[in-house]
Design a protein that fits this description.
The structure is a homodimer.
Chain A lengths: L6 E11 L6 H12 L5 E16 L2 H16 L5 E9 L9
Antiparallel strand pairs in A: 1-2, 1-3
Subunit structure (chains A, B): Part of the FGAM synthase complex composed of 1 PurL, 1 PurQ and 2 PurS subunits.
Family (chains A, B): Belongs to the PurS family.
Catalytic activity (chains A, B): N(2)-formyl-N(1)-(5-phospho-beta-D-ribosyl)glycinamide + L-glutamine + ATP + H2O = 2-formamido-N(1)-(5-O-phospho-beta-D-ribosyl)acetamidine + L-glutamate + ADP + phosphate + H(+)
Chain lengths: ~100, ~100
Amino acid sequence: MGAFVTQTYHAKIYITLRPSVLDPAGTAVQSGLSHMGYRNIDHVRIGKYVELEIQAADEAEATRQIDRVCAQLLANPVIENYRFDLKPQAVSLGGTP
Amino acid sequence: MGAFVTQTYHAKIYITLRPSVLDPAGTAVQSGLSHMGYRNIDHVRIGKYVELEIQAADEAEATRQIDRVCAQLLANPVIENYRFDLKPQAVSLGGTP
């Protein structure tokens, strides 16, 4: 319709602490699990999982923007790593309840 | 060697708020992105991403235990959904730095 045609992409973003960074929350969960009897579980690391939708001209542009958003806002690059998957959203004409 | 041989599995667990549950953190991030100029991003939802290692006799046993751990400790089933992937860990004889 307009001058720009955009596509909606669904992004799944995984943010994890760098391996060298201590994870007190993960340690607490592991200790809780051990108290519950799960002594066979270790290396618990807790990160963030972000889903969002982005409108962009193409996948390269969406990738570029998500990468910037991760580095600037979602993750702390000093202590965290991030990675993400992008998937074009199917165009839906009806609403979902 | 012993009476029981176990295999180590690496689990990736994704915990998300149920779609009907409000996500104030996601809304805050979306608002921040909008202020930064990213008005093409919406439906931001923030969840948890947990990695852990579990020792179990087989994949079915590991799956059963991770499912219980999610329902009992990691997720709040009233407001959160969870899903996970399991992968057998390659046996490593050397250490990684």
